[in-house]
Design a protein that fits this description.
The protein has 155 residues and is an alpha+beta fold. The chain has one domain (11-153): Aminopeptidase. The chain has helices spanning 20-30, 37-45, 88-102, 117-125, and strands at residues 12-14, 49-55, 58-68, 71-79, 107-113, 129-140, 143-153. Strands 1-2-3-4-5-7-6 form a seven-stranded mixed sheet, with helices on both faces. A hairpin with a 2-residue loop joins strand 3 (58-68) and strand 4 (71-79). The longest helix is centred in the middle third of the chain and has 15 residues, at 88-102.
C-alpha cells in the first residue's frame, strides 16, 4: 500500500470550525443549490472526515467523507471556481483516495450530477466505475436531476 503523496500533504489539513465561513463561501459560489452552513457544521460535529486544501493561507478546495466500516462515501468535494481546471481537484482526490485506503477503506462511493461531464471524466480517469443511477437525486430549477453512482475499489 503506497502512502499518501507527501508533496501535496502540507497543503491538506483537517477542516476546523474556523474554516466553515470560507468553505461556505466557496460552496455558495460553486453550486446552484449549495449546502447550508448547518449541514457543513453538522458534518464536522458528527465526525466526518472533513479536509481543506490550502495554499498561501487560502482555502482552495474542501472535501467531506463519511465512513462506515470499510466503506467511504465522498459526500462533497469542491474546488473554488478560480482554481478549477488547474489540477487541484485531481491532486486532492488522489490524496483523499490514498488517505482513505491507508485508513482501511475497501471501497469509495460518490454521486455526481448526470450533467457534470467534467467531474464524470475525472472520476472515471481515477478508477471510479459507474454502479447505477439515482433517479431525481439532485434539485434543479426545473425539478430534479438524476445522479450517476460511482465506486472505486481499493486493492
Amino acid at each position: 500500500m503506497a502512502p499518501a503523496d507527501l508533496s501535496i500533504a502540507p497543503f491538506i489539513r483537517k477542516m476546523t470550525h474556523f474554516d466553515l465561513e470560507p468553505v461556505f463561501s466557496i460552496e455558495q459560489v460553486s453550486y446552484e443549490f449549495p449546502w447550508t452552513m448547518g449541514i457543513l457544521t453538522d458534518c464536522l460535529r458528527v465526525g466526518y472526515h472533513c479536509f481543506v486544501y490550502e495554499q498561501h493561507d487560502e482555502i482552495r478546495a474542501y472535501a467531506i467523507i463519511s465512513t462506515v466500516l470499510d466503506e467511504a462515501h465522498l459526500l462533497n468535494i469542491c474546488v473554488a471556481p478560480e482554481y478549477q481546471r488547474q489540477g487541484f481537484g485531481r491532486q486532492f482526490l488522489q490524496w483523499l483516495m490514498d488517505f482513505m485506503r491507508e485508513q482501511g477503506t475497501k471501497t469509495m462511493y460518490l454521486e455526481v450530477r448526470m450533467s457534470n461531464q467534467t467531474a464524470i471524466d475525472l472520476y472515471q480517469s481515477m478508477g471510479f466505475n459507474e454502479l447505477g443511477i439515482r433517479r431525481n437525486y439532485y434539485p434543479t430549477t426545473q425539478g430534479r436531476e438524476d445522479a450517476q453512482l460511482f465506486a472505486c475499489e481499493f486493492f
